[in-house]
Amino acid sequence: GNGSSFPDRQWLLAFSDFYSDEHKPVDDFGCLFFNEWDFEQWNLTWNLLANCIQLYLKFGVIQAPGERLLQRKLKQEITESLINWADEYFSDADKFDVKLLRKELYDAFCNTDSTQRKIISPTGFKKRFMLYCQYKGYVFNPHKYDPVTGKPYQFDKDGKPVIDDKSGGVEYFMVSSGNTVEPEKKQETKKLRYTPPAK
Q1: Cα distance between residue 20 and residue 22, in whole Å
Q2: Are 64 and 14 spatial neighbours (Cβ–Cβ below 8 Å)?
Q3: Can you state the angle between helices 102-112 and 122-136, rounded to 10 degrees?
Q4: Which residue, 6, 9, 68, 69, has most beta carbons within 10 Å?
């Protein structure tokens, strides 16, 4: 899950695909786990478990570095097809920092594979698109954030940020390739000083 209480109840671990149909643990250890163990192997296992419990009681849960895990989780939620489409779409630098119609983006994505319209709804597309921006380090709707603090300008009654860009019943997306929102450049105004006429 993605709720605020999930991280407190999860311990994320990554496992590699070292073993497969062709390469099994029996190839490395010479016996099936558990079923073919002798007394000495079981004794080693119980000692390992006791050591693990002692370490847990002493140090608690030690989190593994989770950057790659989070990236893999994001990639899985976004889907490979959307990542491939968006990577190609945003390979054109002219697509950054301009208002793009949400409907046109969704239609362009669905045109790459006709089955996508059945799998991903427009709402699901928006959610995945925002995750894609996070995954790539882009800023979604940068004009909705304060350039100094990086925080959203508006919040709804529940305290959630309002980053949607809707006008006239049409929703727009804007993507910035920078990690920070660039402040608008202010034009310098010259202050005029009054100089009394010479006598």
Answers
A1: 5
A2: yes
A3: 90
A4: 69
